[in-house]
Design brief:
A five-stranded mixed β-sheet has the order 3-2-1-4-5, with helices on both faces. It has a single domain, classed as Ribonuclease H-like superfamily/Ribonuclease H (Nucleotidyltransferase, domain 5, 2-Layer Sandwich). The chain is α/β, with parallel strands linked by helices. 49% of the residues lie in helices and 16% in strands.
C-alpha cells in the first residue's frame, strides 16, 4: 500500500486558483523539519520543494477563480484535491504497479476518492501531508508572483491575494480583474454591487 498525503493552498485569498498537491514518499524517504508550509520561511519552503519534487512522487492540480465562482470554494477545493490524487495514482500505478492507496488529507473532510482519511492539523503531524502542503503553497505563491508581474499595482507579491488593507485599497482604486478575482467572495461582491 502507498500512502498519499494531500493538502491545498489558496482557499482564503480573493484572487487566483485554489491549488492542491498530492505526494507519496519513495521507500526510506525522510526529510528533517517537514511541517505545515505556513510555519516555514519562503527560503526553506523552496528548498523542501526542490527536494520533494526531485525525490518523491507528486502531482498538483487547481481550480481557477471562474470554477470557484461557479461551484463555491469548498467544492473547488475538493475538486482540485481529487484531480491531484487521481493524477498521482495514475503515475504511481504506471511506475510502481501498486494499485492499493491510502489517502491522508489535511482538514476535516475528504474529496471524493477511495480509502481516504481526513486529519485535522495533518500538515503538522503527517510528514507526507506536510510535503503536499509545501508543494501546494510554493506552486500558488509562484502563481501570485506571475500575476504580480502583469498587475503590479495590486501588490500580489506582498499579500499573495489575501484581503489585506493594501489589496482592498487596490481593488477600490482599480476594480477586480476579470478571470482572476473571485467575484462570489464578499469584498468583491460588495465592490461590484456598489
Amino acid at each position: 500500500m502507498i500512502i498519499i498525503g494531500v493538502d491545498e493552498a489558496g482557499r482564503g485569498p480573493l484572487v487566483g486558483s485554489v491549488v492542491a498537491a498530492a505526494v507519496a514518499f519513495p521507500p526510506g524517504f525522510h526529510i528533517d523539519g517537514l511541517t505545515d508550509s505556513k510555519k516555514l520561511s519562503e527560503k526553506k519552503r523552496e528548498e523542501f520543494y526542490l527536494q520533494i519534487t526531485n525525490e518523491c512522487y507528486w502531482a498538483s492540480a487547481e481550480s481557477n477563480s471562474i470554477e470557484i465562482d461557479e461551484i463555491n470554494i469548498l467544492q473547488a477545493t475538493m475538486l482540485s484535491m481529487k484531480r491531484a490524487v487521481s493524477d498521482l495514482q495514475y503515475q504511481l500505478t504506471r511506475q510502481t504497479k501498486v494499485q492499493d492507496f491510502k489517502v491522508l488529507v489535511d482538514g476535516n473532510r475528504c474529496p471524493d476518492v477511495d480509502n481516504c482519511e481526513a486529519i485535522i492539523k495533518g500538515d503538522l503531524i503527517e510528514p507526507v501531508i506536510s510535503a503536499a502542503s509545501i508543494i501546494a503553497k510554493v506552486t500558488r505563491d509562484r502563481q501570485m508572483k506571475e500575476l504580480d508581474q502583469v498587475y503590479p499595482e495590486y501588490g500580489f507579491l506582498r499579500h499573495k491575494g489575501y484581503g489585506t488593507k493594501e489589496h482592498l485599497e487596490s481593488l477600490a482604486k482599480y476594480g477586480p480583474i476579470a478571470g482572476q478575482h473571485r467575484f462570489t467572495f464578499a469584498p468583491i461582491k460588495r465592490l461590484v454591487r456598489a
